[in-house]
Amino acid sequence: MWSFFARDPIKDFNYELLPENQEKSGIWTLSRGKRKTTGEPVSVFVYEISQGTEEQTQLAKAAFKRTKTLRHPNILSYVDGLETEKSLYIVTEPVTPLAAHLKLQAEKGGASDLEVSWGLHQIVKALSFLVNDCHLNHNNMGMWAVFVDRAGEWKLGGLDHVTSEQGDSISLPPPKVINPDLERYDPPESPGNGGEKWTGDVWRLGCLIWEVFNGSLPRASSLRSLGKIPKQLVPHYCELVGANPKIRPNPARFLLNCRSPGGFMNNSFVESCLFLEEIQIKEPAEKQQFFQDLSENLDSFPEDFCKHKVLPQLLTAFEFGNAGAVVLTPLFKVGKYLSAEEYQQKIIPVIVKMFSSTDRAMRIRLLQQMEQFIQYLNEAAVNSQIFPHVVHGFTDTNPAIREQTVKSMLLLAPKLNETNLNQELMRHFARLQARDDQGPIRCNTTVCLGKIAPYLNAGMRQRVLISAFSRAAKDPFPASRAAGVLGFAATHQYYSVAESASRILPTLCTLTVDPDKNVRDQAFKAIKSFLSKLETVSEDPSKLAEIEKDVTALAQTGGSAATWAGWAVTGVSSLTSKLIRNAPAGSEAPPAENSPTPQPAAGPVPTNTAAPSRETSNEETVEPDKDRWDDEDWGSLEVNDGYSNYVKSLLFFQCLTFYSQSSDWSSGWDADDSWSNEKDVDGQGQSSPADEGWGNDWDEDGNLSESFTPTSQNKASTGAPKSARLSSAQEGVGLASDYNWDGAEGKSTTSDLKVELAKKKREERRKELEAKRAERKAAKGPLKLGARKLD
């Protein structure tokens, strides 16, 4: 009756055995299993008790006891166990028999000497622990007693025949009684006939070394043939299998001999493994040096070891050891071995936490290596946990961080939401392009804007692109001007025919006389492209809809990032650090009010700045439906000594171009579109940023830009006749002298008195416009986004 209520201990066992891949290991059956609650993988050694196997049952129970009580990093780790009347279960960490592991490695090309050296080091260390610390004899050393875990580390098992040096109360049968085939591994001397008690284990260790390199040992006499045993190991191996048991070394001494200079176990892999085992007690300086050297050695380490041994230590070092940025390079190297799911679970949480670090070295390394992990980041994490920290780099005082932050937007843009991409990011880009004192950063900002244009919504593209590229076309840095031209070309499909004719072509035409030949070449190519479109529409107006089909196209999704993401790292060179080292501070600062443009020296000034790569093309015409501007390598800003940080535009022609009179060059892209002023011929006043639909959100102070001042075309009285103003413009009244350009083409032909009078009138007109603007603002409130100002 009581047996009816008795509980089956096997059913209550916390582990489930998997039927596949069962292997025989001595008297045990090795099965794969998993924990029922968590699914964690384990290995389960099972022994079934049956009649007539009393000796084997005695060995199984002894092994159960030893495995449970012996704890050492190089001995098979006991997790759980179960003993019943019918069976014994020993649950350990997931392992594979050494013979099966070596067979699998042979299919992949064979185990490396580095892996074998560390494996033998672990087995000898475990044997030394048993002999010297526990005063035990293993008595069962061999290939069948060694197991390999997921990290590729060797573990000593087979504790069935372990005996004490002082003798046990229960005598266990020797291995050859259970398995006669093991007799060939016995030492030549009879038991207890000279030598130490551990000499038998050392002999069997020699047999194990022979089998690792040469396969199964056919007979004891084969030990004399060295086979494939490495030369560094030969003298120490010969000591293990010497006929005289008194000269066989203690396991600890054998380990020292192999670790001596030039020894088989004296290599970078063993050194790294030993350091990782003791990393918790190492000094911070030692850890820093270790992680710096680790990246160079990882390529030669086994893949499983990197995933299961190195990676956990790297994550622990960052989480609790304050290792800092030095762990990033080896961390991303190891990450290449992980699956997408493993990467999400192990590395992404650490990366997200790293972005909140205030360590500049950490931040810049994350930005530089973003390409390696961006595909594993989901949009929610990017927008809520990463982007808010990354944007601080736009205002960092270190130019290298600002540059890397700009370049990282190429990878982040496809994952940003509407607010972060079209508002927050554009606000920072406007500030960088207008106010940053480093020419390469302004150039890279223009390049990046052109690359992420497909991800902007249609309204933002209409509002930003023309103004931004027009501003870049007037930048004193030649590479920025070239980037502005190529930006127009690369985004040509987003402009209407009317915008191309009235706003883009006039801007490009001024660059056909640019001092820099590369800028001129790119300008001519772009002009041909846009003129070809206009000519196509002129010949066949029905094609207008087809040509303008992308003007109001929806923003692309992140799925197309793969078509250009590779450019993010290779296209834009890291130039800022070179600029800082070679150019004086502020040498590329935007021009201040009435500042004269420096004259070129007799020869070019060699500096490390950015220069766009140039394609040479002999094509006379560009078909509108086959524009090659998308293929233009307009982002490859490589270093070219032909550019000077100090060369600015010298020729000022009769085109009326606005320049800011404030010290910060401008307050945003909205103040840059000089071509909107053509409407002033009707007698209306100077257009404001609101006329271009920019609103006042681009001004950093929250107000409309006050630095956007009228040019000489608008200085004339609004009531002056149209013909008078046109004639004044045609005669070029005071243009060069008014702006004090000192260029050869712009020498003043009027008297000094006339110059002073023109300046005075211009100042009075500016004050009058400012007063009117203030009155309108006070009466009507702040201008709304996209509203047109009615005078």
TrEMBL record:
Chain positions covered by the region annotation Disordered: 583-633, 667-791
Ranges of Polar residues composition bias in the record: 606-615, 704-717
Residue ranges annotated for the Protein kinase domain, each copy included: 1-311
Record's keyword terms, sorted: Coiled coil, Repeat
Renumbered ranges of HEAT repeats: 386-424
Database matches in SUPFAM superfamilies: ARM repeat, Protein kinase-like (PK-like)
The keyword Transport appears for this protein: no
Gene Ontology molecular function, alphabetical: ATP binding; protein kinase activity
Free-text function comment from the UniProt entry: Regulates COPI-mediated retrograde protein traffic at the interface between the Golgi apparatus and the endoplasmic reticulum. Involved in the maintenance of the Golgi apparatus morphology.
UniProt-recorded name of the protein: N-terminal kinase-like protein
Organism per entry: Cyprinus carpio carpio
